[in-house]
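Aim 2, interim progress. The first record below pairs a target sequence with its structure tokens.
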Amino acid sequence: MARKNFLDFTYGDIDSERMVINLGPQHPSTHGVLRLEAELDGEIVSEIWPRIGYLHRCFEKCCENSTYPQVIPYTDRLDYISSMNNELPYVLGMEKMLGIEVPEKVTYIRTILCELNRIANHQVAIGTFVMDAGAMTPFLYYFIDREMIIRLFEECSGGRLLYNYFWIGGLQRDIPPTFKEQCLAIIKQVRFRNEEAKKLWIYNKIFVERTRNIGVLPADVALNFACSGPVIRGSGVPYDLRRVKPYLNYTQFDFNIPVGSGEVGTLGDCWDRTYVRLQEMEESCKIIEQALARMPFEGDVRAALPKKVKPPVGEFYTSCENPKGELGFYIVSDGTPTPSRVRCRSGCFVNLSMLPYISKGCMLADLILILGSIDIVLGEVDR
């Protein structure tokens, strides 16, 4: 149904059974400054229009007026829940353009920190989603474990949310002496909490009934919308850039790509997307364990840092498996220290685009759950 302007309505067009309401942009259940304009037939959503742009910070234009190293802090602010993962595709692309080969130690550290950040992201995603469903405890439980990860990141980079830790050619500084011990302690706690999660809420009858068969996203629709991350994997499609287009040293590790199974309802529903994130946390733990066992702890993480970053004329596109989906950067170089064009491919933006499709015909209360199951962050949607 095409949206009509109010002035286009005539008396005969008035539908007394339908009304248009706004959810957000200040509503807490919209997970940020997102405005959902919903047309309701009673409590049924007949149409929905996501309205974005309330957090637009001109990311791309700011990057085009900065030197290449100065772009890294801007990438942090895209998805402030997964800042380590945001820096990676940009840094890898620049190193490829400049022909820089980083030390093996740097590659392992990047892998470990990105997987830790993936866990931290999914803890927030699951905690807030379950809170949308009516339970408060999981959110607080996960923040206990997430704090361990954030403290380690703070020791590495000096920041708790925005890190600027992955630099072109290496790292900002070396890891702390207790890095391995802290990582192993985090893994132990994450696994313990995930077992609690399965007992307390994932298989809880109320939670299952609240999320099964809600927001069903068929695999073909997910592919047509170019969805990525847990959203498309929740629909049964094993698409993960760590396997499809390997980067760093992921080919050395043994890990699975969790996908939805329709275990308690229809394949691709809200429950499947949530359970995929829970399983991915375990797979991240496995990757971290293997990386810690093989990583050389000696070596200078700043050995390959270039004194001047001035890539040759050309262009590149690099993408990585961000916790929320595929995050990529398209950079055009004109041979100067400043990029002439920057474009960000946001997984959150693409995943959000299919919200009207899977929300049509749902209950208003279920709309909040569907949005929460997509796991978006508005800093990356609006850029």
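The second target in this work package is listed in the same format:
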Amino acid sequence: MYVLVILMMILSKIKQIMIKIIKNPIILIDGSFYFYRAYYAYPSLSNSLGEPTGAIYGMLKMLRNLLVQYESTHIGIIFDSKEKTFRHYLFDKYKSNRPIMPDDLRLQIKPLYNMLKTIGLPFFMVPKVEADDVIGTLALESDRANRSVLISTGDKDMAQLVTRNIAIYDTIQNIVLGPKEIHHKYGVPPELIIDYLALMGDASDNVPGVPGIGKKTAKILLQNFFGLNALYNNLDKISKLKFYGSRSISEKLYQHKEIAYLSLKLVKIKTNVKLNFSYADLIVFKSDINQLKKMFIKYEFNNLLQDFFIKYLAYS
């Protein structure tokens, strides 16, 4: 019992330190990820008028939980562009495996935007640019200004952005990932994440990768050769590595070099997107309380109404 008490005290202290480190961070939220996750993770709800509301309800709960846990004066919710991006022109099968947005989810987009605006949360969509690239640009801009950044997403591509000032909030596991945590999770540091994904591919975005190379092999290769360029400059040395199938890996890499470098371009997040706003513009506005109550009543978020106002707006 005494050991358990001591352990709890240590964990509490660690949590206090973490909260102190990321106090008032710039929070960048992958809005498209949140929206889809809310749609599939929460019940398919509708109000008495038959309007679908489940994704809106779920996303508001996710946002409230995050914003209560990490109070911040600067927040940006970024959504993917509707148009094709440069990655689609590099590889016409990019994200081609993803199903078309369900009609009942599409109907919730405009009401969600109205809800976010009323709450006072800044949200953006840049034409012909993915949310990842907007977030990457804002995150690096903030990092250069020595501002702490918390990126909330479930997309493993974002791990490449992590620095001492930039952390990932894993919404699925409810943990914060800095450089050490990224290294522990993937077996490679943040600066090698794009090489890691280029080798093994990314099924969620239909990024091909090198056939025959999975997580384990990609990790071993990058632990021995620092990046894709170093790997291709030392193909003759791969067979000397002591892991199953090492003798055939150099041949696979040689045969699929073009695919490997194409995959690298697809997974690399752009951090120099031209934006007409900056991290300094991500200021949380004052909520329109009366209008927000009307909207919550319209969509029949009865339980969320009290919970949201007490737990989030009390902090805003």
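The beta strands are 26-30, 74-78, 123-124, 149-153, 166-170, 175-177. This observation will shape the mutagenesis plan for the next reporting period.
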